[in-house]
Structure formats: C-alpha cells, structure tokens
C-alpha cells in the first residue's frame, strides 16, 4: 500500500478544532501548548465551549479573547441560553466583537448540575437556540448581521427530540433564523451522518453540516458522555477498547486511527470538512490530521 492511499482522496480536508476552557494553571499550559501545536494545521476556526457557572464562563471569554489577540487563529465562542438574561448574553457577544471574535456557536445548553433535568428559560433570557440566533442577528444590526453563527445538530436525534420530522424542521428553523453552519454531535458510523445529511437536505437545510469527530481515548469517559447525549457506540468500538483500561498509550493510538478511518470513509462520500472535539489534547488531533494527509499549512495551501 502506498503511504498516500491511507490519506483522504483529493485536496487536503478543512478542519476545525474544539477546546474547553482550562480550570487550573496546569490545564491552561496544556491548552496553550495544544493551540500552538495545532495552529500550523491552519484550521478554518477553533472554538471554545461554554459552561453553566460564572467562573467557567469567564474562563471561556478569556480563552477566546486570548486566542484572538495572541494567535493567527479565528476563534469562535460558544454561547448558551442558560442562566443569563438576553442583555447579559448579548453583552458577551459585543465584547467578543470588540476583541475581534466574529464567530459564535449558538446553543440552548443544558441546565447546570443540580438544577433539574429539563432546560427552563431563565427570567429575561432566551427561550431556545432559535431565539438566541435571532437575538444575535438583530442586536446592533451592523454587528449582529456580520457574525458567523454555527449551531449544533444531532444525527442520532437529541435526547429531547420529538422525532425526525420535528428535528429536521427545528434545524431548518435555525438556518432560517440566521445560522451559517451546523456541527454534528459525535458519531462513529459514517452511515449515521450520511442518513442524517440526506434527511436534512430533503427538509430544506442547505447550510454546511460539518461532522463532529470525537477524540476521547478514555473509553469509560466516552461511554458516560455517549449515554448522556444519545450517541451510539457500535459493538466493534467496544471490542477495540476491550482490555485497554490500563493502557493509555494504546487507547490513544486506537482513538486516532478510529477517527481517521471515519474521516476517510466520509471523505470517500464527498465530505471535506471535519470538526474535531480535541479535549485539549494536541497529540491526538495532530496524529489524526496526519493520518488524513494534512500537513502544516497544507489546508490553507489547498
Ligand atoms: P437545540 O438544538 O436548540 O435543541 C436541542 C434539541 O431539543 C433539538 O435537537 C430538538 O430535538 C429539541 N427541540 C428543542 N426545541 C424544539 C422545538 N421548538 N421543536 C422541536 N424540537 C425541539 N453545551 C454546553 O453547555 N456548552 C457548550 O459549549 C456546548 N457546545 C456544544 C457544541 C456542539 C457542536 C454540540 C452538538 C453540543 C454542544 N453542547 C454544549 C451540548 C448542548 O448544549 C446540549 O446538547 C443541549 O441539550 C442542547 O443544546 P442545543 O443548542 O444543541 O439545543
């Protein structure tokens, strides 16, 4: 097998990376090391997730602003409707704009731990992700109109979904409210994404739907998150990680190969953009990109 036959076909794919805001100085050092090492991959954008509590939020804002100010990357700040009034959420968007952050991932979000299972609209807050997108678009039109807005979508349905028709209609409504791109929840079977794409296109969703690729080498952790968000873990994945609980090094190699293989199969179907849930781990994201044939700055060159 020639070395190139293991990479994706045609042009190098476009990638984006998701980070979470660091809680400690050690985690912050690791994130900045990750940012520096991934920067040469010339991602389309990098995004930073948003938590429910005040201090997590400050860490998200600081991280997003720092990426804008100290790197050549295009950062996107995640924003949710949880626990804040419309004015508070929109003032974060304004601060982002002033700091050079022109991209928002607009989400409804989940209630903070211990605050019940169901999302409740905060008094004076946004009702749902559509209300949030509209709020951003209408806020100071010279600024709101210019933001790039990404949203979430769920190829295996969101746990609160009322079925496929409602799910696709809801995604279309996000597009109609002003969303530019949807990023999927993670999945492991290419057909899951392809079936979803077909349903979304048939339902009038024309915006790019970028597959979200999970890079979680801790299989126990992955099982926990998957159970919460409704992503299925195929039997072959359980088998691949079986007996590796104490062997982190091998789990990482398996994780990068599983992710790259998924991307290659999607690429064969014409997919050329991938969003990686990096969990702030440079090595895994880098090795996955390498397995896809992406080299420093090759995405930009392509
Ligand atoms: P929405 O897409 O607005 O709604 C979730 C689902 O509820 C819909 O898919 C649909 O099934 C149903 N629904 C809601 N309203 C209606 C309606 N009117 N009609 C029909 N169906 C409806 N969480 C965080 O806290 N911080 C983050 O930074 C974060 N980043 C994320 C990034 C991505 C790419 C993804 C996929 C998820 C992220 N999440 C994040 C998780 C997300 O907050 C949860 O999944 C949450 O439960 C839903 O938020 P949402 O914006 O996806 O919701």
UniProtKB/TrEMBL annotation:
- Give the enzyme's EC designation: 1.5.1.54
Pfam families with a match to the protein in the record: MTHFR
Q: Write out the entry's keywords from A to Z.
A: Amino-acid biosynthesis, FAD, Flavoprotein, Methionine biosynthesis, NAD, Oxidoreductase
Which processes are annotated in GO (biological process)?
A: methionine biosynthetic process; tetrahydrofolate interconversion
Catalyzed chemical reaction(s): (6S)-5-methyl-5,6,7,8-tetrahydrofolate + NAD(+) = (6R)-5,10-methylene-5,6,7,8-tetrahydrofolate + NADH + H(+)
Entry GO MF terms: FAD binding; methylenetetrahydrofolate reductase (NADH) activity
Q: CDD domains, from UniProt?
A: MTHFR
SUPFAM superfamilies, alphabetized: FAD-linked oxidoreductase (SSF51730)
Kindly report, in one word, the top-level EC class recorded for this enzyme.
oxidoreductase
Q: Mention any one GO cellular component term assigned to this protein in its UniProt record.
A: cytosol
Q: Where are the transmembrane segments?
A: none
Matching InterPro entries, A to Z? FAD-linked_oxidoreductase-like, Mehydrof_redctse-like, MTHF_reductase_bac
Q: Which Gene3D superfamilies match?
A: 3.20.20.220
Instruction: Give the record's pathway.
Output: One-carbon metabolism; tetrahydrofolate interconversion; Amino-acid biosynthesis; L-methionine biosynthesis via de novo pathway
> What are the names of the required cofactors?
FAD
Q: Per the similarity annotation, which family is this? A: Belongs to the methylenetetrahydrofolate reductase family.
UniProt-recorded name of the protein: Methylenetetrahydrofolate reductase
